Amino acid sequence: MARRHGGRQGRAEAGPPPAKDYSRLRHPFAPQRIFSDDEVTAIHQAALEVLQELGLKVLLPEARQILADAGARVSDEMVYFGRDMVEEALRTAPRSWRVNARNPDHSHVYEPGALFFSGSGGCPNASDAVRGRRPGDLESYTDALKLQQHFSVIHKFSPSAEPQDVPVPLRHYAMIRAQMATGDKALFGYARGRAQIEDTFEMVRLGMGLSDEEFLNNSWCSTVINTNSPRMIDAPMAQGIVDFARAGQMLIITPFCLAGAMAPITVAGALTLQHAESLGAITLAQMARPGAPVSYGGFGSNVDMKSGSPAFGTPEHVKMQLGSGQLARHIGLPWRSAAGSASNVADAQGATENMMGLWGGMMSGATLIVHSGGWLEGGLTFGYEKMITDLEGVQMIADLCAPTSGAEAEIGMDALRDVEPGGHFFATQHTMERYDQAFYSPLVADLSNFGSWEEAGAEDAATRATRVWQGILAEYTPPPGCDEAVARIEQFIADRSAAGGAPPME
C-alpha cells in the first residue's frame, strides 16, 4: 500500500511500520525574525497607546466593572487601559502551566519552546468523498474526534465539525460527552455564556473524577476567545474570559485580524491591532483572577482584495506569524498560531496553503498551531480527506523535531567504506539499523513508475486518503476509561436536558 521515502526494499511486503509517537514535541530551530528589536518595541508601545487612548469596546457590564475596579477608565461601553494595568497583567500571567488530560500520557506543559498541534475548529459543515458536503452533525463531529485521537501528532481535541443536528441549548452536553466517549486527550469547551460554561466545567469535573479544588487549581479544558476586530470584545467572549479565568482553565486569546478588512492592510499595522486586543483580553483575565493560564494568540492573515474573502497560507499570513512570535517573546508568554486553507477541496492549493501555515508556525516558535488538519473554505468546512493529507505534512514537521546527530556513528564511515563507487546503501548494516527511523507515508504510492501505478488503479492522494480515514474509523476502539467517564456524567446530562438545557448568551 505504501512505502517509505528513500527505498522500498524489505518493507513493502510486510506492510507499514508501527506508527511513530509524536506526543512530545519541542521546537528544533531558533525562531525566525521579521522585525528588528526596535521595531518590535515600537509595535508594543503603539498597542499600549491604542489601549490607553482609543480603548476597546467591551459589551459585558461585569467585565467593564472588573476593569474599572482595577483602574481602567470606562465611558459607556468603551474601556481605556492604563499601561500600569497591562504591565501588572503581564507580571501575573504565568509563563508555563500544565494542560491536563484524563490520560496523563496526553497531559502537556504549555510553555515557550513546546510544540503542540490541534485539528481544524469551528467548521459548520463537513465534507468527504463518500457523502459529499453537508451541514455538520454529531456523527461527523465524533468522526473528527476519532481521527484526532488516532494521530499522536494531534495533542488536544478541537471542534472540527459543529454538530448542528443537536439543539443549541443541549449541544454542549453532546460535545463534551463525545469527547469523553471517544478519547482521552485534553478537552475543549465553547464560551457561549455562563450557564453553558458552568455546565461544561461540571461535566469535566465529574467525568474526570475531580474534587472542586483539583479542578480549580489545574487546567483541565481550554477555550478559544476571539475578539471582534477591530477593538471589540463581545458579551459571550468577555464572559468566557471572566469565567474560565476564575475557574483556572486555559484561555487561548485569538484576535482574528485580516489585513485590509478588520485590520490595517500593512503587516505592522495589523499586528499592532492584534497585539492591543490580545493585551486587553489578557488584562481582563488577570484582573478576574491573577495567575490564570492565558495564552497569547494571533490568527492574522490578509483578504483577497478583489473579493474580500479571507486568504490563508499567503506571504502576509507567514509574516504575521513571524511578527506574532516576536511580540509573544517580547512579553514572555507562550502563544497560539494557526495554519488553514481557503481551498474548497483537498487539492494542491489546499495542501500548499496549509503547509505554508505550518511552516510559519514552526519558524515563528508557536506553542500551539491550530487548524493543522482538515480546514477547507476558510473554516466553513471540515474535510475528511483534507484532514488525512494535511496530517501528512504535520507529521513531516514533527519528524523535524527529532534530534539530528553528527556523531561518529551517524557519519557512517564503515558504510562509506563498504559501498563501491556506483553501488547503493540499501543493505548496509548502517542503513538496516536505522531503517525504522525513516519517515513513513501512508499516501505515497508504492509503485515507482507511471505504468505500474496506472495498471494498479491510478489512485491519487485524495482517493488514498479516503481509504485511510475509512480504515481508521472502521477499526476505531476508544481507549480505556471512556465508558467510565461517560457514566459519571450521564445523570447530570439527563437532568439538565430534562430542564431544558442552557441557552447560549446572545
TrEMBL record:
GO molecular function terms attached to this record: methyltransferase activity
An individual GO BP term: methylation
UniProt-annotated stretches for the region Disordered: 1-24
EC supergroup of this enzyme: transferase
E.C. number: 2.1.1.-
Keywords per UniProt: Methyltransferase, Transferase
Annotated family: Belongs to the trimethylamine methyltransferase family.
Protein name: Methyltransferase
Organism lineage: Bacteria, Pseudomonadati, Pseudomonadota, Alphaproteobacteria, Rhodobacterales
